[in-house]
Amino acid sequence: MNAVRLMPAVASDSALVAATVAGDRAAFTALYQRHADRVFALATRILGPVDVRHDVLQETFLQLHRALPQFRGEAQFSTFLYRIAVRIATHHGKRLTKAWRRMDPQEVDACISLDSSALDRARARQELEQAFEALGTLTEERRVAFVLVGVEGLSYDEASDVLGISTDAVKQRVLRARADLQDHRERCERMRRKEVIQ
Amino acid sequence: MNADDREAPHAADQIASALQRHPPKLDDLARARLANMLGALPPPAATGDAAESPSTSRLGARRWRAGVAAVATLAAAGALWWRATSAERWQPAPVSTHQRSPASPPDAAGTVNPQAQRRLVQLEDVSLTLLGDARAQVNTTSSSTEITLTHGTIELEAKGRGRSPVVTVRAGELRITAAQARFAASVQGSRVQVRASYGEVLVRAASQTTTEVVTAPATREYELAPSDLGRKAQLTSAPETRTTQTKLAPSLPQVEAQAQAATATGATSSDLPAGTETAPAPPRISPPPTPTPTPPPTDDAASLERTYQEAEAAIASGDLSSGMRLLQAMVQRAPRDRRADAARFDLARLADRTGDVQAARRWLGEVLASGRDEIVREPAHLMLCRVLMREQDGGATECLRQFRREFPRSARDGEILAQLATREHASAGCAAALPLIEEYLRRYATGTFAGKLRATRAACGERPL
Hints:
The complex is a heterodimer of chains A (198) and B (465). Chain A is mainly α. Chain A contains nine helices and no strands.
């Protein structure tokens, strides 16, 4: 077995939080660099590939910066961060319901790896467009719950902490979201069959 | 539902899978700009209005909502009363929001200061307030707090329970310690001023063996030798200035110092870590500092900022040539300014977008050669690697290796590591690729490239961990 090159130890989130509160600006930048992609991805999945995701990202970290002194480490840092991000994303989302279907093709393309072949890219683009379109048919509550549990991989308990609702309520929302997504696919397939017949 | 439908994966699982396989990527420039902005934020206030801002604090949201509800209720009640008592003159009652306005209340000295000029940091046994453009670095341990003050004025209140110091301020070669005291320390160029308003403050220079006790109320001023003349500090004690003021004022009065040079020739600086006069080393947990400190703002700074904004506006409106012209003017005007690095990076992006790969590489090379700001250097380096990969340049692999060496904590480390492993596998075979693949799978077991790299490892005949 070849030797594995070890990377330098990485400071924990809690240590970076403590350093930020103590006045170390670089620590907060490190927190940002570590979590920016996750927050951006979460915002994209909740809001769709729309430009306002950047606003969500910025507001999330600004609010996080101000809320850090109150972070006592009782919850996981990621839960603390998600809570802020979800709240801001849903706040923006309320004004974006109609914009869901107006996906920016360039923003969708930005999700696809440049290294893949043209065929793979085209397939990925289609998959993503269908996924975002289907998510757009969900109610905001169900979409957020589904994204947290189904896509981000949070447990029901973690999602419950993030959303501030009971675990059972999270389960219910996720189950309904799944049923809605299945219904949506079946509706789409029926429509497609009709088009073929016609 | 027929048999085919039952075998098909659930729509929700397919959607989740698609979203996980194609995670949205944050644009490097947007990432860098936001990092730049966040890096300039003052330390978060532990207490005070800033932490409770209604639009920004999630934890304060309930209180804020309650406050708004109370204000709204009061306003509504007032409006009804006003309407009932004076129907002719009735107008909608304005809802006051001044309680949450940025204006700060009078401070301890009774002086109103703009909140932006006072930043409070609440530590274990120490309250630290940075005034104006003060620059300080804080390092806390379980027993004490060490603050390295490089510029400006800070106010401190040490709340130790015994006589052992709970706070140490390093200002140049001076070490100022206190256990139970309230004092201010100020660094302006080579001058250090210590003003005690309560308790005792101990001041010592590394090059002297004696410690001076400053008992409140008193002010001392010290002159430090320039660092380039050696590390021998001149501790020059000004005559004691008694004052009746017992609270710290936001700005310190000038004290006439009568210099009494007491150059210590034989003393060593063993009490202070090397490099105290230079930019202090950050705590181990934070990323390394920029190679050189940011130069102080010049008169031109505002003009440069304006030019940059104009360039951004031009680019956003599609006028790339004007945008590039403005950015180039910025680079020519202030080649060493940190904004020039951002401008070079923008120029590289624009050049790449317009197909001028050579120009893009040149601009990126300039950022990497002269750039002092890691926030710009990192995306520039990443972009250079991507350009080289796209151009199938032989230097791409070395570029990726160098990126990992220079930015080991980069958020893009996983992506870079995967690229590196793939390239090594393609060019040098399994022996070179396997260590990298193992490292990726160890660090990013559920990462985007994990499946692909596991397949590569299996193809190489290596047993999974």
